[in-house]
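DM between two lab members

TW: hey, do you still have the Urea ABC transporter ATP-binding subunit UrtE entry open?
JB: yeah, one sec
JB: this one, 230 aa:
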Amino acid sequence: MLKVTGLEAAYGRARVLFGVDFEVGAGQLMCVMGRNGVGKTTLLNSVMGVLAPTAGKVEFEGADVTRMKTYDRVKLGMGYVPQGHETFPQLTVAENLQVTLEATGHRDRKAVDEALEAFPRLVPLLKRRAGFLSGGQQQQLAIARALVTRPKMLILDEPTEGIQPNIVLEIEEAIERLHATGLAILLVEQYLELALRLADRFIILEGGQVAHAGEAEDLRDEKVGRLLAV
Ligand SMILES: Nc1ncnc2c1ncn2[C@@H]1O[C@H](COP(=O)(O)OP(=O)(O)OP(=O)(O)O)[C@@H](O)[C@H]1O
Ligand SMILES: [Mg+2]
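TW: and the structure you got?
JB:
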């Protein structure tokens, strides 16, 4: 479904990714792991076209999207939730979902209801300004907004980062349910235990490349511990 080949990315002269290769199959949950600063966000931004890669190829459902605008990738079915759960803080929860709906090609109001079904805790908060939500609630809203675009693949950058433990569990359960409906998911996740529970496959970045890859059970390898140790 998503195929990344020889992807390279840089900030000016500082090269971050040196030929990253991986694939996510239909309905698969792929976890991207690696220490702070290895380039996980850079990889997702390159996959989404937020950052133009310096080399390599990104294909989504067989189409070469490497030079496509982010907005067009979203229309193709790539839903993106960037790191730091960004929302429009001045707008209410309902308005945040509405503006996202209006930006999509389909404009089917049912997409908002479906997104709220995935995160029922947002329903009593619909009239509240997003800026007044807790971090966990903002993260749920950020994911709900991506769902409004009706993605075929959801791309999540550390959705549990800095979020209180009981809400982490809710977000984990929501990801699990979305995965169970057949949605493909590309998830950057630092918690090994969470990755073990959720992932079908994983890659670990190190030195700008995929240093290790495998299925969920391979996450118990001692090599994984070494690659993730700080
Ligand atoms: N806009 C930028 N300009 C210059 N350098 C950047 C920029 N964004 C990231 N970097 C650098 O690129 C490298 C990779 O950063 P990136 O944010 O992709 O890492 P990450 O794996 O997502 O880290 P984290 O786990 O902290 O989120 C780091 O060395 C970082 O300092
Ligand atoms: Mg990051």
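TW: got it. The chain has a mean pLDDT of 94. Residues 40-41, 83, 157 surround magnesium ion (ligand 2) (CB under 6 Å).
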